[in-house]
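User: Quick sanity check before I run a bigger batch. Here is a single chain. Can you write out its predicted 3D structure?
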Amino acid sequence: MLARLRTALLRWVLSSMKEVHDVSGFRVIVDNKGEGVETAALLSRLGISLGWIERYQPWRLRNMRRDITQILIGPWPRRGAFLTDTGTCVLDLAFLVGRESSPASVAATLIHEGMHARIHRRGIVYDGPTKGRQERICIRAQLEFGQSLPEELGAGVMQRARDHLGSEDGDISRGVSWTEMRRKYLDNA
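Assistant: Done. Predicted structure follows.
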């Protein structure tokens, strides 16, 4: 019952958003109301980051196109998430255009969430004791991406991935906060 309600809620939220774009073959929904960031800047950064994936690990981009239904850019409590109910990859818009964010770090986040999508598409549930293992798979994919980049571009991605791989499973398997999602998208609607 709760899963159906959550799915219906997500579909309603996503369908009520008006800004829909195509970036590198992905349906991209932008929730940019009241955030003071130009949509063009968000889409440009996303396009650059997807371009880096296509250049340095093209098979990952092909997989992401199969496994991710759409990308949602909006206020989010974390860098990114994969919402299994709708096949949506969520990117936090502040992270996407933040000064401390590089196209490489955005691409690594997309790869991470794309791996969650791939795992989900294979029928593996993100639940219980498998969370930590699944997070490590996703973080290793980020590390491999960082290693495929020229050293000056990949160093930050590799360091962040190594730092997360050294964490305890409980620290790297934090789930999406549905309370935060509701607050961001419904309470402000």
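Residues 103-121 form the longest helix (19 residues).

User: Great, the batch can go ahead then.
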